[in-house]
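Data card: per-record layout.
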Amino acid sequence: MRKRYWFLATLLFLSFHSLAQAQELTISGTVVDANTGEPLLGAAVRVKETGGGAIADASGRFRITVKAASATLIAKLVGYKERTVVVTESTESLVIRLQEDILRAEEVVVTGLATGIKRENAPNSIGTITAKDLLPAPAQTVDQAFAGKVAGLSIRQNTGAPGGGISLNLRGITTLQGNTQPLVVIDGVIVSNDALNSGLTSITDAVGGASQSSQDQPSSRLADINPNDIEDIQVLKGPAATAVYGSKAAAGVLVVTTKQGKPGETKIDVSQQFGFNSVLKLVGTRDWRADSSGLRAAFGAAGVNAFVASGGANGQFIDYEREFYGQNGLVNETSITARGGNATTLFTLSGQARNDQGIIRNTFFNRYGARLNLTHKFSDRLTADVGLNYLNTSSQRASTGNSNVTLTSIGYAATRLPSFLDVRRRPDGTFPVMPFAPSNPAEIIERVRNEEFVDRVVGSFRLDYSVFKIENQSLNIVASGGADYLNQRNNITSPVNTQHEQAKAPSGENAANNVASFFNNLWLSAIHNVNVSSVSITTSAGFQVENRDISAVLANVRGLPADLPSVGLGLTQVSQQTITRQYDQGFYVQSDIDFGGVGFLNVKLRGDRSSVNSDVNQFYLFPGAGASVVLSKLDFWKDLSATIDFLKLRAAVGQAGTLAPPESKFLSFGPANVTGLIGAIVPLRDGNNNVRPERTTEVEFGLDAGILNGFASLEFTYFLRFIDDLILLKQLPPSSGFTSQLVNAGAMRTNGIEASVNLNWLRSREVEVSTRVIFSRNRAEITRLDVPAFQRGGFGVNLGAYTIRQGFSPFSIVGRESFGPNPDAPNPTVRPGEFNGLILGDEQPNFNLGFSSSVRAYGFELFFLLDWRQGNSVINLSRFLLDGTGISPDVEAARERVRLRATTTRPYVEDGSFVKLRELSLNYTFNRDFTKSVFGNAVSYLKIGVSGRNLLMFTRYSSYDPEVSNFGSLATAGSVEVTPFPSSRSFFFNIQFGL
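The structure for this 995-residue chain is written out next.
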């Protein structure tokens, strides 16, 4: 009997063991590109039933063990369509072929502060720049790499100096006084992109005393960010998409995600770039040997004598443009990234060192940075992401741009320098005295310093806690945020024994600027998802707190005893301190409803209050809504699907705001000496206790289409914006005791179209050819103005300025002939001094167009990007200055321009249209057999190549570059040129490999 029991037990054991073996699957295989057959490194293969999975290695291989009789595998990789495969038996040779997602339909795009949806359902036009798109050619700063890549996103280079400032603009301006730059969010942290002025104008006398001016040519602080750290950037173009960001998002939002770790063996990527910068374009200068007429009128008897002493018609010609701007500045960049992890912990560790020399001697831009990103899964319910980024930049930008009195600007002083006069450094190290100007530009290059040093730390975190997850619904709590701290130090030194300082009393000058900026924010959200039949509803709600604390101290001293950059050694000192403390709070609620992937509805509401508002306790509400329908998923579309395989219609509306300037509601008292006693002077500008945020309402309509199964894709958008409560300066009657006040006193309307077309001409295992075209056009008009029309930007109407008046574009340029009687004007018989309706130009272009194409064949990759801007106007005051001294190379035309100065400004308002070869790259990737034969398994890939940025420019603009702005990133004062730091082109040799 006992033997029978043992026999039955043994049979049961063997049966269960056999069953267990039968229910365990071992699945090995590869993930490859369906068109090319290339293995897809990093593809994620997940088991739907258990949530487990694996990551494909460099050969595309993966291996999974599942304790079940069957398994549903879901394979995903960014840029490819998701693929589902059901496996019922163990296999060693499963091949999963992924189709490239040419429309990026399955890419997840941002809809809220903590939620996202597939692009194919998005009701808004959202641009995406991936890591691959961002840097085909290296860029000094990340914002330089945006040009020509997203419809509606335009950039303007404010200066050609290394690390110089770039202004970003999305769909035109949304304010006349405030910030026109989009809000920047990196891994959930709202970071500073402020242009923190240096105090340069206190040395150049463009603005007197210790003053932080828009003419300081500052860098935007995006210059600090390492572009190689970025995984992708999502561009939310306007309030229809950014309403959930509230009162600081009218100008759009850049949502930046940095590279995160991937499970599997640690991979190390190394990139090394070598190259140089050279001047993009030279204006030319007059050769007095060929024609010395007008020499006495320009430079007097001293000029004639100097010309004779130089040899006259047989004398010397010095090309000072090449002398001053002709350096081939070396560039060196090293980037290393390590990524890896396991099922519970992922990490990314990266570092970069970049050194750029400028085209002017002694100028440079250096950036050093390190980043650590960690993801840890504490349990099935709790996941944490943390990031820490340290950045250090330093630069020397020389002294360029506008200048007055002593002309302590290289370009400005050079407008007084004839080509026969030698002012270069003598063998003994001294410089000749420049007889025709109070300064010597060669001496300025060698001895004046315009230095900037930045230390910055950005820390981020995200906690995602799953409260519950049942069959058809889930609830998650997400907390995210972080802090951005930066310290910027500027030191600008003009030594005592230079020619230009001898004209000052006391001589020897130093400007020292120190800015401490601290941003921090916290988001807390609850996200609930429920699935009812084919309808999925995701509702999120939460609140945000944000603090901004900026303190800037600028000291300007004169009377330095020696070449010492110390504000403590001067005889006289003028200082200025600006403190900004801003506290914001907001709440939001949003619901995304997905009707089986066919229709989508989004509704949201944001409420914000801020310490800069007149009523700090009032919440201003910003609603938004959007809807889309994928017509190609409906039954009636089947007959058309062979031609148009994807078609979506979308519409959205939303509101966002622009906060009032912090100083709008306060009185700012100034110091005074009253009968020997320390006192304060009441300011001339009155505070306003009723100022409100500016409000922008945007309506957007569009369609997305895919044609011939991925051969082509199209995206088209029309938008209309209404900007109300524009904050403007109102003049007050003298009886009030004040002269002006910031008030809500205007409205503006903008509209535009955006289109992008992608063409995939050929896709095979060995050859791929594709083309992309993006187009955008914006128009703007002041529709209401409750204050008298006024001019801004430029240096007065006679030299060209922007006019702000009802019925006209805020980018309209007027000149001398635009006021008073003029037979050629729309209103020819107005009284003297009155506006006659004549507009000389418009800074806003007729359109922007980006054209890019890539070819991959047998290991080679060729890419180029052309950027075309058409119909924009530029006020060229460099030409005005050169004409005045007779140095312009077009001698006769310059004389005619000078003759007409008394009656017209038109010759100095030029067409700024251009076409630039923004990026060009040619790379070769060695095949794996070669790398394995040479390096064994030590190197996973090897790529070498050459590339360039801004290699060619085609333009009729007569000066260095129509992309210029003497007044930085001001909303309506751009495209004014005054002897800038010229733009450069860059050439690179690069090598990349993986370990």
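Known properties of this structure: DSSP finds twelve helices and 50 strands in the chain. The two ends are 66 Å apart (CA to CA).

See the next section for split statistics.
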